[in-house]
UniProtKB/TrEMBL annotation, chains A, D:
Pfam families: CoA_trans (PF01144). It comes from the Bacteria. This is Succinyl-CoA:3-ketoacid coenzyme A transferase subunit A. GO terms for molecular function: succinyl-CoA:3-oxo-acid CoA-transferase activity. Keywords: Transferase.
TrEMBL record, chains B, C:
It comes from Sporolactobacillus putidus. One of its GO terms (molecular function) is CoA-transferase activity. This is Probable succinyl-CoA:3-ketoacid coenzyme A transferase subunit B. Heterodimer of a subunit A and a subunit B. PROSITE patterns: COA_TRANSF_2 (PS01274). The keyword Transferase applies. Keywords: Transferase. Belongs to the 3-oxoacid CoA-transferase subunit B family. The keyword Transferase applies.
């Protein structure tokens, strides 16, 4: 039951115009860089993209802004991207801003079969407008809905052919929730190992959530803000 | 300006106690990390999925897979752990982070905070701020008392879109320290170099003056 | 009795396809595992936190930290993973398990299932059954067609407390196979040795007879 | 900031009559056996215990039934215990049966600050009685509430002094959700290692959820149903 594909193009070819795509990553850390490049080449349009950020102008999801493939963006922070602002102000791009924790939880809920949950986040702010309010133990909460996507792009460190995934450091971030919330989840990884080579106690995303696995070469892994101290 | 910031950071530092789990917001709050004394052991949380932020890496040793919520390359301390975003916000929203220190644009006398959006300016997004102010055990806001035009940022009502309603437990500015409790805003300290008169002049909000006010002049 | 069970298990086995993720309930369904041919690669899920159940361990090699949902000691296959209970049921309830095969006490013509409680008898609890019937891609119930007293367990309405309402996709008994779709219960197969007459006699539920009924006699 | 305690009695001494206690474990696998023994010795009464099962007559939480320390049990399956039945029929023991997935999710929600969520589990059954029903995308769901406890007992394999935990195989089960949902979480472990010795990518429960860590000796780890094949 190998899920290994030898070209990202094959996997991306299933994605249709108007699809909802969930992408892992935080800033440029742990982003599915090969899949995004392949999606750009595919030319698919009118995408709804759910991701914490939208890359930068010339890397990550920002590339899909340049080619105007994104119709709507659901994100928590999009401040690193001039194209984004332009297209939003032009009315070319719809935007739904979601608090980061609510976004993570909505994706987790979507993947876990939970259609909605209550949270205190956003109560009394613009985010709460039009949402159901409910009081539990004297505190007010709003209802937020689960998110699922037609496709999810995930970047992991290691995988086996069944699609079990292990992430590295803070490159984990939204990838596990994206993997669960995608109807078809495509994982790109730095290292593909044989079945049985991953310690079952160390697996972060069980293969059941993953449809395709692709081993990428020469990851760029761009750093957004290099901060160092003198050695 | 550097002096003002120094007093704010030093005062905020006093709120950080040994054994705490703390989230320091992007910008000025991040600068507190370097000031924490070695004998005060705290675990710094980064909402992108790290508990136990360390110093910035040495030149040439930055790891693209290891960043903080401000997207800066960092290192970790012994005892650190990595986790996914849902776990990170379970931690934050479930009340497991003792203290969040965030920057602010406006704070109202009701303890409302606005710190994420200026209408008419480029939209950026709230990131994790709305989650932190609701979830953390205590929320401390640090900011300049007045804006560039000399107008009070400590308001009767926030004019900017809110990050959270009634969420501020403590406000530390370059002029004063206020606490919010039982629907009351209370001036509890005056910063070095400031006077009560100055605080009163530069504060739009109505506030009580604490009996034990320190640095009363 | 052994013969009856054999036909049920063999028929259920046909529903398991290469590449599936499957949860086999406690009791009779667990026995299916041993019958899966080597060239049909499936991952068996155990709701206590394991995907990739293997055979029972050899004598002397049982690990108390490695059990299935029936609390039996097991082993794992290559590619297995362990996870916590919340993750396990995220997997189940989020529709990621293709197939659940469960035992039954009663199934109704509406596709209702009762399999967890007999009023007046000792309470045991539903375990993960209510989650499985709602969450799995397909739910198959396997059970004897009649009880010890010869009474039909395939009912118009369940008399026992329900595990789930309208959740059964397929019912496999020692006499027949029924499918539930679009609010209709349909007899699709008659088991070896049984007759349509016998199925009709021993079934309280009203059902349609499929045009393509196999083993029609 | 070491959380290591040298006696379980010390930690258990904080538990008061009438407390709500969440315990990890599935059957007898991954149960906090030392903490349960210490709690029995403490004699604390009128406990509400939340755990998937209630042990067997002479081991695990069953021990606390014998001493009549449990007032109410919230569990998904209690079929292995005769004392349980007796006390329930006598009216000495209150029982709330919760579907296993709902129990896991209620504990996760409680620990994550989510007061309530919707699930399809239990719709149309006795479990749904008196609960709020809501339709999302044409399907009916019921509202279930988060659970938190005054205390949580957790059993892990390895820990460091900050309380970071790693579990082993299926002994993980309810332990991570219990750890999050306890206001005061006490972990007992088989092996305590130095700070920094656990790989941060391998930690299952970050130490932030743990108040005390205790290293136990000579774990019994009883097997409930030994099933083997001839060697």
């Amino acid at each position: 039951m190998s899920k290994v594909i030898s070209s990202v193009e094959d996997a991306v070819s299933e994605i249709h115009d108007g699809a909802t795509l969930i992408a892992g990553g935080f800033g440029l850390c742990g982003i599915p860089e090969k899949l995004i490049l392949a999606l750009r080449e595919s030319g698919v349009k009118n995408l709804t993209v759910v991701s914490n950020n939208c890359g930068v102008d010339d890397w990550g999801l920002g590339l899909l802004l340049k080619t105007k493939q994104i119709k709507k963006m659901i994100a928590s922070y999009v401040g690193e991207n001039k194209l984004f602002e332009q297209q939003y102000l032009n009315g070319e791009l719809e935007v739904e801003l979601v608090p980061q924790g609510t976004l993570a939880e909505r994706l987790r809920a979507g993947g876990a079969g939970i259609p909605a949950f209550y949270t205190a986040t956003g109560v009394g702010t613009d985010i709460a407008r039009g949402k159901e309010h409910k009081v539990f133990n004297g505190r007010t909460y709003i209802m937020e809905k689960g998110i699922t996507g037609d496709f999810a792009f995930v970047k992991a460190w290691k995988a086996d052919p069944y699609g079990n995934l292990i992430y590295r450091k803070t490159a984990r971030n939204f990838n596990p929730v994206a993997a669960r919330a995608g109807k078809t989840t495509i994982a790109e990884v730095e290292q593909l190992v044989g079945i049985g080579e991953l310690d079952p106690d160390r697996i972060h995303t069980p293969g059941v959530y993953v449809r395709y696995v692709f081993e990428g070469k020469n990851y760029e892994k761009r750093i957004e803000k290099l901060t160092t101290v003198k050695a | 300006m550097a002096g003002k910031r120094h007093f704010i950071l030093e005062r905020a530092l006093k709120e950080i106690k040994d054994g705490m789990n703390v989230n320091l917001g992007i910008g000025m709050p991040t600068l507190i990390a370097d000031r924490i004394p070695e004998d005060v052991h705290v675990m710094l949380q980064s909402e992108n999925g790290l508990l136990g932020i360390g110093a910035y890496p040495k030149e040439g040793e930055a790891d693209p897979d290891l960043i903080n919520a401000g997207k800066e390359t960092v290192t970790v301390v012994p005892g650190a752990s990595y986790f996914d975003s849902a776990e990170s916000f379970a931690m934050i929203r479930g009340g497991h982070i003792d203290l969040a220190i965030l920057g602010g644009m406006e704070v109202s006398e009701e303890g409302d905070l606005a710190n994420w959006m200026i209408p008419g300016k480029m939209i950026k997004g709230m990131g994790g701020a709305m989650d932190l102010v609701q979830g953390a055990g205590r929320t401390i806001v640090i900011m300049d008392h007045v804006n560039k035009h000399g107008e009070s940022k400590v308001k009767k009502r926030c004019s900017l879109p809110l990050t959270g309603q009634g969420v501020v437990d403590c406000l530390i500015t370059d002029l004063a320290v206020f606490q919010f409790k039982d629907d009351e805003m209370r001036l509890v300290e005056i910063q070095p170099g400031a006077t009560l008169h100055e605080v009163q002049n530069k504060t739009e909000a109505d506030f009580l003056i604490d009996d034990g006010l320190t640095s009363y002049q």
